[in-house]
Amino acid sequence: MSNHEQRILEIERVFDLPREKLFAAWSSAKHLSQWYGPNGFEVPDCIVDFRPGGALSITMRAPNGMEMTIQGRFVEIVDNERIVFETANPGPDGVVKVKARSTLTFEDHRGGTKFNLHEVYTILDPSGAIPIEMATQGWNQAFDKMGAFAGGL
Q1: Can you list the positions of beta strands (E) in the chain?
Q2: What average pLDDT does the segment 4-8 reach?
Q3: Is 63 helix (H, G, I), strand (E, B) or coil?
Q4: Quick one: CA torsion of 13, 54, 98, 95, rounded to 10 degrees?
Q5: Of 75, 68, 70, nearest to 50 (Cα)?
Q6: pTM of the entire structure?
Q7: Among candidates 71, 69, 75, 103, which has minimal Cα distance to 87?
Q8: For residues 97 and 125, is the Cβ–Cβ distance under 8 A?
Q9: Per-residue pLDDT at 61 exceeds 90
C-alpha cells in the first residue's frame, strides 16, 4: 500500500469543433508537438506510439531554455471518445518525483465537443510537485492551443 499523496486535477472545456478533430490532435507526434505545453513553450522532441501500451515521450522547452521531459505510455484508446495515459515526471536529477494518470474524454455537445481532462497525480517526492493551480493554468493554455490547431485539421 502506498502512502504517497495524490492530487486530482479536473478540467472541462467545450470546443466548437467536432470531437474527431480534437482527438486527432493527440494521435501523432507531428500533431502533438504543434500545440502541447503552456504558452511560450516549444516541443523539440516528441514520440507518440498511439496504441494501448505505446510509448509517449514529450520534451518541452520553456522560454528560458530549460527543458523538461515526461515519459509514459498509453493505457487505453477508444477512437474519438477516450484516451488514458500514464506519465512519470523526472526532476533535473533524473529521479521521478511525480507520476500522473490522465484520462481524456471527448463527447458530442451542441454541435461541438465537450472535452474533459481528469488527472491523478501521485507525489513521490514533494520537492517535484507543482501546485495544482500552475498545472491547471498550463493545461488550459495548452488546450487553447490545441483548439486552434485542431481547427485547421
Answers
A1: 5-15, 42-48, 55-61, 67-78, 82-90, 96-109, 112-123
A2: 92
A3: coil
A4: -150
A5: 75
A6: 0.94
A7: 71
A8: yes
A9: yes
Q: Per-residue pLDDT averaged across 102-113, rounded? A: 98
CB 45 within 8 A of CB 151: no
Neighbours of 105 (CB within 10 A): 17
Sign of CA dihedral 22, 57, 137, 97: positive
Q: Please give the grid coordinates belonging to residue 45.
A: 522532441
Residues linked to residue 70 through DSSP beta bridges, in sequence order: 58
Residues 6+ apart with CB under 8 A from 21: 150, 151, 153
Query: Does pLDDT of 51 surpass 60?
Result: yes
From the list 36, 65, 38, the residue with the least C-alpha distance to 48 is: 36
Tell me, rounded to whole angstroms, the distance of Cα 83 from its chain centroid: 10
